[in-house]
Amino acid sequence: MNLLLLIRNFKIRYKLLFIFSFTFILIMGLSTLTIYFIVKQNVESSIESELQNSTQAILNNVKTSVSASIKNHLRATAEKNYEIITHLYDLGKSGEIPLETAQERAVDIILCQTVGIKGYICLMDSSGRLLKHPKKTLEGLDISDHEFVQEMIAKKNGYIEYQWQN
Fold first, then answer.
1. Residue 81, SS3?
2. pTM
3. Per-residue b/e over 106-141, b at no fewer than 16 CB within 10 Å?
4. What pLDDT was estimated at residue 48?
5. Is residue 142 pLDDT above 60, yes or no?
């Protein structure tokens, strides 16, 4: 009660100053809180957006690196196999070993290799018929109806990518 009595005794200019000051502080406080929450929300959404962009960029880099690594590994394997087969063919052609033995060794070397965990290498002729396959029951099978086989036949040399269960 003493506070009210003290305020009543103030001159009008002090009363107006008190009311305007209180109103000003109240408006500034509410404005500050509003601005704070708006800025906080914008900063959070901006940070989340940047994190998503960064994550996507990192994911793309990893996918590209993995893809390039797999391609390089498969390309190196194919080139090395080509060198081995050429060497065995030259040995058979020169008479150092029988040609049939050179072919058997080449087939054994190719078929014993794996690609990844479940993948394999097989031998196919230029018409799309499987000559040698890790599963003997598939040898002689014509798989030329598959799109990737048709692409292989058309390309003859080089590297292609295709989706297959193994």
1. helix
2. 0.61
3. beeebeeeeeeeeeebbebeeebebebbeeeeeeee
4. 96
5. yes
